Every structure is written in structure tokens, then in C-alpha cells.
Amino acid sequence: MITRLLSLSPAVRLRLAVLVLLLLTITATHVGQGVLVAQSLARIFAGRPVSSIVWFLAGIAALQFVRSLVLAVRESVALRASGAVKAELRRRLTAKLLRLGPGWTQRDRTGSTQTSLVDGVETVDAYVGRFLPQTIAALLGAVGVTSFLFVLDPIIGVVVLVCAVLIPVLPLLSKRMLKDRNAAWFRGYKGLYAENLDALQGMATLKAFNASGRRGRELAALAEKFCRDSIRLMAVVVLYLGGVAFVVGLGTAVALGVGAMRLVAGELSATELLLILMLTAECFRPLKELEAAYHSSYSAIPSLTAIFEVLDAPVQSQGSRSASRHDVGFHDVTFTYRDRDRPALDRFTLQVAPGERVALVGRSGAGKTTVAALLLRFFDPERGRITIGGTDIRDLPLDELRSLIAVVSQDTYLFHGTVRHNLTLARPDATDEEIEAAVRAARADFVHDLPQGLDTIVGERGLKLSGGERQRIAIARALLKDAPILILDEATSSVDAANESGIQQALDALTGGRTTIMIAHRLSTVRDADRVVVMADGRIVEEGDHAGLLDRGGVYARLVAAQEGSA
């Protein structure tokens, strides 16, 4: 994990090296200060006048001033180092999630993914900016000071070295327990975040059904469980911190005790004992700072593990071929959604000729929308193949595949931005004239009545617009893309009766000459399709034109009769 973090940005290794150098400089100032204090105390104890230690005191003040400057520089460099890693992690995560697509993101809840993308990345601050450089500096600093102690007195040097070695061993003893509790803590954190986000997004529904109190109690129970997981994790961390404090105290006490006995035996001078006392404290000081850095960064381990799981997730393979024709074929396709037992499509075979308009109808759960998702390669089928112009879509570059297809879905998603921004997602280089033509064709002239026209902010998910207005913008977006293959997934589902006829005319004009798959529940919208395909349980049970299927009196005729009877 450390190697991967260091490889994220070329500047990180240099900045970490600078951080280690700065930390060693801080350790050197502490050691120098300890030596000067020991020399000063030795002179005072020997009855020398205060004037004999003036230069020592000046040296102590100078070292403190240098240390203050180095500490300020360290904070700046640490922020820059961790900032570079965070920026690169966010860039790679965003790019990877976009490559993985909705098929992968649907495996987990939005709040859980957001936790890794936002909060998880933030934990890098303490891990990269403090823990990693402190680990190296503590090791080098402890070795350097212990070597000095060996020169003064080998026996005390061995005592301090043994205690110093015990401190890095403590995390290894608690690693297994800490790993399990860290994982439980992060799972609880992601779950709590996801549930709170879900409640926030569904606030209107909770209020409408007077369920906000019940939901609040459920969230409180989750928060209580997360609190228990946090306490279990902190118990291990506190145990480790207590062990570090005990080893530091033990090492200092033993070194001082041995030094005192050797002083009595005449084997050490008072000055040497004072030096040992000061240097023993300085030997353990970087290790105690490492303990504090570990305490502030322990949550980064599960967060970074989750981040690298996303970065390591396999992406869909893609080829380099191109499609010269725009007919669409499904050949014996079987597909089952994750955590489902029954296939959404079962040996599904369909051929759509270039320019043909095919309507897919059937009851909810028949597999109609799955056809669109597979054609866009949000998922890959378990068996069979899907082709455009005779070329397997897995052999097409994903960008080229999706450039061939325009979509108007029943769940229209508009981003928080202007109307113009949402339209030009289809074609960023579209001119004002082209945008205006698409708006007129989609009967979306209402945009000119908005406060800032095309530059009006539509709000999150387009909530400042009505459902019909959002749908017409989506239709205009598909018109602007001008792709040869069109998917209409209940394109008029949110349009009122007064506007349905006009929009249907616009869609009829849009589908002219394009290979079109129309997914419909409202069967009145498919009367003019070249072919109607009736689906049930992921299979085709009937197909033909509207009139022929009615005359046949089968499944389609019963669906039409049911809708007309309920109208």
C-alpha cells in the first residue's frame, strides 16, 4: 500500500524525503538542546557561576528558534505532499468509476461509494503527511541517538535499544485484532453514511407517510452500533498507546537506574549521567511522536483498502474495431443481475434492421430495460453476443459504441447546472442554432420563459423543473446528439396528455431513418412501430405489427385491452 501511494505522484517521494529531513532536523535540535541543558546543569552542580552557561542558554534559544521555523515549514510541506496524493487519488477514482460504469456502481449504495470517494481520500492527510515520514524519521532518529548512547555507555545503550525495538513490535502484536476491528468500523461508517444520505434524499417521502420518527429511530440504532464498533476499535488503539507509554517509561527508568548505579560505582561522571538522562528522553521522543501520528491515521488503513479495491476492480475489455452499419442484433443472450436467481434475459434473440423501429412491450420485469442496458454495455451477458453492424459490441471501443446510441429514459437525470450545460452533454461543440433547433423539435420552448433562459440553473436532478419539462429537455438532448441508434425507454412517461401528441410527433421525426428500440408500457405510443415485440420472463412470446397482433388475440391483445379498459 505504501509503495502504491508513493507511486501516485512524482512529487510525493521528493516531498516525503524533505519531510523526513525536516523531522530529523527537529530531532537534532532536541538532541542539541538536551546536550546543552546537561552541560549547563553539570556546571551549576559543580558550583560554577551562572555566567559560565550564558552561551549554552543562547544556544538553547537559537535551537528553539530554528525548531519553530522547521515546524512551520514541515506543516506546509506535509499539506502539499498529502494534497498531491489526494488530488491524484480523486482523479484516478473518478476516472475509474466512470470506466466501470453503472453496472459496477449499482453493486453498492451511493453513500458507500461516496464515503470512499470523499471521506476515504481525506484520511490520506494524516497517513501521508504525518505517519509515513514520522515512521522513517523515528527509526533513523532512534538509531542515531542510541548510537551516541553506546559511545557514552554500552550497557545503557543496549537497555535503550531493547526498549526502542519493542515499540515497533507492539503494532505487530495487535495487527490481527486491529485489522478486523478497523474493517468493522469502516463498514459501519459506510453503512451509516449511506442510510443518512438515503433518509435525506427521501425526506419528502418520509414526511408524507409520517415515517420520519421511525426512520430516525432506525438511524439512531445504526449510530449506536457504529459507536460500539468505534469503542471496540479505540480499545485496541488505547491498548497500543498504553503499551508504548509503558515501554518509554520503563526504558527511561531502567537507563536512569543503571546510570545511577554506575555513577555510584565511579564508572560514570555526573555530566555523563545527565547526558544519558537527556538523550534517553530524546531517543524515545520521535517514537512517541510516531505513536501520536499512528493514532491520528489508523482510520486511513481501511479507507485506503476500500479505495484500492475500486482502483483494482477489473474493467470491461474493449476492442478497436468499428461498425460500418447500424443494425442491432441480440443472439441467444442470457443475463442475470447480481444477487438474482432468475435471469432477466433468457436466450433472447432479436434482430433490428437499419432504420427499423421496434417496440418492446410487456409487463414490468419482462426484461425490456435490460435490453437497453446490455446494448449500452452497462453489463455484459453471461452467454450469447450483441452486435451492431455484425460486429460484437465487445470488439468496439466503449466511447465509439456509446457515440452511436442516443437514449431518452424514463428516469431522466439532469445535473445541477444550466439547461444549456445539460443539453450540451450530448454534443459539447453544438452551436446555438443547433441547440435551438433541438429545443424546438422537442417542444421544449418553455426554456425561453425561464428566468435566465438556457442559462437557468435547473437544480439537483433538475428538481426546479416539472417531470414533463425534464423529459422534454432529455428528448432535446437526444435530438442534439443525432446518433444513428436510438433507445426510447418510456420517453413520454412524464409528459401530460396535452403535450404528448406534439412530443410524439417530434419523436416520430427523430426516429426517421434511425435504428430505434422503443421500450413502452403505454401501448398507445407504439402503434406506428414497424414491429412490436412482446416480452415475458426475459423471452419473446409474440412479435408482429400492431394490427396483426391485435387480430391474433394473444398476449399483446390482452395487454391493450387491459390498458384501454382501465383508461
Automatic annotation (TrEMBL):
CDD domains: ABC_6TM_AarD_CydDC_like. InterPro entries: AAA+_ATPase, ABC1_TM_dom, ABC1_TM_sf, ABC_transporter-like_ATP-bd, ABC_transporter-like_CS, P-loop_NTPase, Type_1_exporter. Residues 328-562 form the ABC transporter domain. Signal peptide: none annotated. Keywords: ATP-binding, Membrane, Nucleotide-binding, Transmembrane, Transmembrane helix, Transport. The keyword Plastid does not apply. Its main location: membrane. One of its GO terms (cellular component) is plasma membrane. PROSITE patterns: ABC_TM1F, ABC_TRANSPORTER_1, ABC_TRANSPORTER_2. It comes from the Bacteria. It is a multi-pass membrane protein. Residues 17-299 form the ABC transmembrane type-1 domain. Belongs to the ABC transporter superfamily. Lipid exporter (TC 3.A.1.106) family. This is Fatty acid ABC transporter ATP-binding/permease protein. It comes from Thermostaphylospora chromogena.
